[in-house]
Amino acid sequence: MRDLVAEVRRGLTRARDLFRVPADNPELTRAQFQAFSKQVPLLYFILITNSMAIAYTYLPLAPAWLTTVVPLLLISLTGSRMIWWLRQRGSVRDDADILRNLRITNRIAGPIGALFVCWSLALFPYGDPFAKSQIAFYMAVTVIGIIFCLMHLRSAALMVTLVVLIPFVAFFIAAGEPALRAIAVNQLLVSGAMVTVLFIYYRDFAALVASRKSLLAEQAATQALSDENFRLANRDSLTELPNRRRFFSELASFFAEAERDGTRLAVGIIDLDGFKPINDTYGHTVGDRVLTEAARRLGEVCDNWGLAVHLARLGGDEFGLVVGGDPTDDDLLALGSQITDRIKLPYHLDAAHAGLSCSMGFALYPRSAAAAEPLYECADYALYHAKRHARGAAVIFSTEHEAEIRSRGLIEHLLRTADFAQEMQLAFQPIIDARNEQTTGFEVLARWQSPRLGLVSPADFIPAAERIGVIRGLTRILLVKALAAAATWPAHIRVSFNLSAHDICSPEGILHLISAIEASGVSPARIEFEITETAITYDFARAEDSIATLKAMGCTISLDDFGTGYSSLSHIHRLPLDKLKVDRSFVADINTNPVSHKIVKSLAGLCADMEIACIVEGVETEVQLDSLRHLGCDFAQGYYFAKPMPADAVAGFLSEECRSASAKQAAAG
Predict the structure, then answer these.
(1) Is 94 a known active-site residue?
(2) Regarding predicted confidence, which is higher, 571 or 5?
(3) 305-331 pLDDT per residue, tens
(4) What is the DSSP string of 618-631?
(5) Residues whose CB is less than 8 angstroms from the CB of residue 267 and which lie 6 or more positions away in sequence, other chains included
């Protein structure tokens, strides 16, 4: 019995739900409203036109209140509703408002239908057989029109169908006329079929809305995935800054805007000075933390800057800027100053502190270039110039830099076709024992006598040879020439030869050095290789292996230009060095600048503690030599002793030095 009651209750609940607007499916409700708003006006139009036709037919037959007053009231009611629904087309409503309007329609559909039924049946007795048939036709057509026009709101369609159909069928069957009974039965059967169609259509409509919802969800998921892929493709995963790809996309956008508006645009490139030694010393994890912190600081400066600045990480320790808003040279220098000041602040690591600086290059449109890519290249050259001549500062690309680029391009072109054996010459500058002022060796200096350019400085052609990849071939030829000259010197005179990063950071480069040494007949003990800190940091692991190989042969190793560049003590600690060469910039004012004096003193003390020799270059006066000797420097070189000389002048220099030393001894004796 309980099961039967429960089943009856469930059946009643399902029946009641048929006459309600569902509130748990907003997508279905919105779709119903959109379709319903297009068809309801048609329903009201059918009611109005059919009602006017009935009223016209019964005008001479029925009382005026039934043929005029009541129809006008019904037409006014349905007409106002039709106008209201017409205004809803294209309107934007929220889900709650849509549900409220559908429920209002659902509630008034039954009463409106009942009013029209009562009015029709009230007219029926006054008509002749033809007029009565029109009433039957009117009600039958209305039922069919209701089902079709309300099919998107099933609850309203069912309610109006029942309100109209039940009185219609009951009234005509009770009328006693066989024809009217047949019409009632026929209408009942047709309406049943129409209701069946209504249920099937509504089910398919709901399924279509559900599938559309699923499709939209899939599209939204696909779009979200696409957006995420786009974000990842344009975002640096470490610093969360835009990456190189996004940078050039933004540059193109900024450039198009600057061209259109006739305003200035700047490109800036930032390079962190001293990052690689931090990475090598503390490891990549700490290096990543330093990069992230540097990126955060750059972001803060750019976000708070008055002009529009787009910041991106270009790769490694290099960052890019696109500065819009019509910047001036003063704006760029001020921005560069703020950035360099922020980057210089200490970086607090787990158990240590690290220091960085940064060099910057700017190029300004339209002064420097007329297109985006050349503008970037100009900024890159300005950065290159800053790192060589103004490390830790910002440099703006100028006409002088443009001339340098043209000259650099010409040098690179001529180097590719140069006959190194014929065009490259060597000069030798003596290295002097600071205690007795006797020559212990010569540093080899390259000179390029170009048939087209004349004498070219090594400061110009050595970097060019490295850029275009001919440095190893040049090194091999110069080393062979240097060793051939050294073979003619006394056995106690050493030869000091400079190596580039490409020479010591590639297996081919070190093999060529070994081959040249073995073929020269010069003892490796007489050969000293000078290596800069920049060359070591290019690939420290490979450089360390190459240095170990040269040491194993018996060559000595000198760290050149110490005190400039990265100046990492870890290099002295980790590498098997024999000498440390102090840069000439500290010697020029050693007797007038206390800071330079203290630096040289500290470096000389460091060399003594590490048991390696200290060489100082750039000595030009006797006073400087006395100071260096007093500070404990072991060797010196510079114009005070001799300028660089050709190979055929070395023998005469050594002979003159020997005679001078003999004369001093004789005078002393």
Answers:
(1) no
(2) 571
(3) 877 889 999 888 899 999 988 888 998
(4) ---SHHHHHHHHHH
(5) 251, 320, 321, 322, 323, 362, 363, 365, 375, 376, 378, 379
Closest CA to 355 of 286, 278, 418, 409: 278
**Tokens in use for 241?**
């800054």
Length of the chain: 669
Cβ burial of 456 (10 Å; 0-12, 13-18, 19+) is: buried
Kindly report the number of other CB atoms within 10 A of residue 266's CB atom: 30
Torsion region of 243: left, alpha or beta (phi above 0 gives left; psi -120 to 50 gives alpha): beta
Residues 44, 71 contacting (CB under 8 angstroms): no
Joined tokens for residue 647? 């190979």
Average pLDDT of 86-111? 72
Instruction: Dump pLDDT digits (tens) for 572-596.
Output: 677 888 998 888 888 888 888 888 8
Q: What is the pLDDT of residues 245-275, one digit of tens each?
A: 889 988 999 889 988 888 999 999 999 887 8
Scanning the structure block, which residue is given the tokens 């020997």?
Answer: 658
Q: Following DSSP, what letter does each residue of 544-595 receive, concatenated?
A: HHHHHHHHHHT-EEEEEEETBTT--HHHHHHS--SEEEE-GGGTTTTTT-HH
Q: How many CB atoms lie within 10 A of CB 320?
A: 26
Catalytic residue among 271, 273, 280, 317: 317
CA-to-CA distance for 446 and 461, rounded, in angstroms? 10
pTM of the model: 0.55
CA-to-CA separations, 204 to 40, 151, 195, 216, in angstroms, rounded: 20, 11, 14, 18
